[in-house]
Amino acid sequence: MAYAAASYKRILKILEKWPIDQNKAGGRDYCEFLTKYVTQAYKENTFETNCKYWDQQYLALQKLVNNANKDKYKRVLSSSATTLTAEQCNQVLSNEFLEELRQEEKKSFFRRLISIRPSKV
Fold first, then answer.
1. Residues contacting residue 29 through CB under 8 Å, at least 6 positions apart
2. What b/e sequence results for 39-78 when a residue is b if at least 16 CB atoms lie within 10 Å of its CB, and e otherwise?
3. CA 47, CA 33: separation in Å to the nearest integer?
4. Nearest in space to 42 (alpha carbons), one of 94, 1, 14
5. DSSP label at 118?
6. What is the rounded distance in angstroms from the CA atom of residue 32 to the CA atom of residue 5?
7. Is 32 left (phi over 0), alpha (psi -120 to 50) or beta?
8. Mind giving me the DSSP string for 26-80?
9. Which of 18, 46, 103, 118 has the fewest CB atoms within 10 Å, i.e. is most exposed?
10. CA angle at residue 78 from 96 to 19, to 5 degrees?
11. Spatial separation of the C-alpha atoms in residues 78 and 84, rounded to whole Å
12. 66-93, pLDDT tens digit by residue?
């Protein structure tokens, strides 16, 4: 049991280094999800039975948090396949932008058609 507790604390400590993205708060942030997942697994005593698995998870999280692959494989371009920069991708994936999309979807087809049509000047 002592090993499980130490492993759990070690994983939570590495997750503390990963900041929670406020634009994705409310269950959409990956760090928030991982913290809940690890806590649930600890409560269900899976740390004790799967020591090797959780050690591997710790090493993987450590690479993620320390940006090991980002530093190892430097990017030449600042944009992605979508031609958006990382900052633009974050804005598009934010809760605010997604809420705007939901509001657009709620409009009737006729209202959307009118809002797309160019205005006469």
1. 20, 21
2. eebbeeeebeeeeeebeebbeebeebeeeeeeeeeeeeee
3. 18
4. 1
5. P
6. 20
7. alpha
8. TTT-HHHHHHHHHHHHHHTTHHHH-HHHHHHHHHHHHHHHTTHHHHHS--S-SB-
9. 118
10. 50
11. 8
12. 888 888 888 787 777 888 888 888 888 8
Pair of tokens at residue 46:
């899976």
Query: And the tokens for 42?
Result: 């600890």
Nearest-angstrom CA–CA distance, 104 and 27: 23
Residue 33: closest CA among 51, 59, 55, 15: 15
Tokens describing residue 51: 């020591």
- Global pTM value: 0.65
**Polymer length of the chain:** 121
Helix, strand, coil tally for the chain in percent (to 5): 70, 0, 30
H or E stretch including 120?
none
What digits encode the pLDDT tens for the residues 96-118? 888 888 887 777 766 666 766 56
- 25: enclosing H helix or E strand: none
User: Amino acid identity, residue 16?
Assistant: E
